[in-house]
Write a structure and sequence with these properties.
Layout: H1 3-16, H2 19-28, H3 46-59, H4 63-81, H5 83-87, H6 92-110, E1 118-125, E2 128-134, H7 140-153, E3 159-165, E4 168-174
Antiparallel strand pairs: 1-2, 2-4, 3-4
Helix pairs in contact: 1-2, 1-4, 2-3, 4-7
The chain binds protoporphyrin IX containing FE.
Protoporphyrin IX containing FE binds next to helix 4, helix 5, helix 6 and helix 7.
Length: about 180
């Protein structure tokens, strides 16, 4: 998993708690990287799960909540790192439809080693989008947070419904009738 995913997570921890919390959770885990991440490096995705579990143990906040909050924060960071991907989108649902065939395709060109999920999307109406998330990393909570971050970024009050499937997770995004 790309270093940006880790560096942004540790920045979030530093902002919400402090630098000692960052050092403590790194010390709590036996990380192959030793906790030294660079934005362009690639690391085992299990390290993020270990760091989140360590943060959960120290803060008593549940792991899924932490992952979701992190996903939401991550979206705002990705949007500011890669503004070119946002500017082409019409609305939030068009943007979300483009994650699989445009954004992550561009990400893969930049980082051929990126580990990306797959999304299958269908429009269930002008204001409703179904997204089926599949990934061997099972970061459903991060994905949920990313979609929330996206709605916030586009300043829409949508609803997100999540249903587990046998081989993935279905997200239904419903915007208010316009
Ligand atoms: C500007 C928009 C976006 C950019 C630049 C972007 C880029 C990236 C990058 C760099 C990674 C890490 C790949 C790796 O570590 O190897 C990633 C992973 C991921 N992205 Fe995106 N992304 C964007 C939007 C979204 C949105 C809106 C969603 C959700 C609908 C999403 C879902 C995910 C998930 C869940 C992962 C974690 C990997 C996995 O689950 O297998 N991304 N993305």
């Amino acid at each position: 998993m790309k270093g940006i995913i880790f560096t942004e997570f540790l920045t979030l921890v530093e902002n919400q708690w402090d630098e000692d919390m960052v050092d403590d959770i790194i010390d709590d885990c036996d990380l192959p990287s030793g906790g030294a991440y660079t934005a362009v490096g690639t690391y085992d995705h299990k390290e993020i799960v270990d760091l989140v579990m360590a943060l959960s143990a120290r803060t008593q906040i549940e792991v899924p909540t932490l992952l979701q909050v992190y996903g939401k924060y991550l979206f705002s960071k990705l949007a500011s790192h890669y503004p070119q991907f946002i500017s082409k989108a019409g609305g939030v649902l068009e943007f979300l439809e483009g994650v699989e065939h445009y954004i992550h395709v561009e990400v893969r060109k930049l980082y051929p080693e990126a580990e990306l999920p797959s999304f299958e999307t269908s429009r269930l109406g002008p204001n409703q989008l179904e997204m089926i998330y599949r990934s061997s990393r099972h970061l459903d909570d991060v994905c949920h947070g990313l979609i929330e971050g996206c709605l916030e970024f586009f300043k829409v009050e949508g609803q997100i419904e999540r249903t587990p499937l046998e081989d993935g997770t279905r997200f239904l995004i419903r915007l208010p009738e316009s």
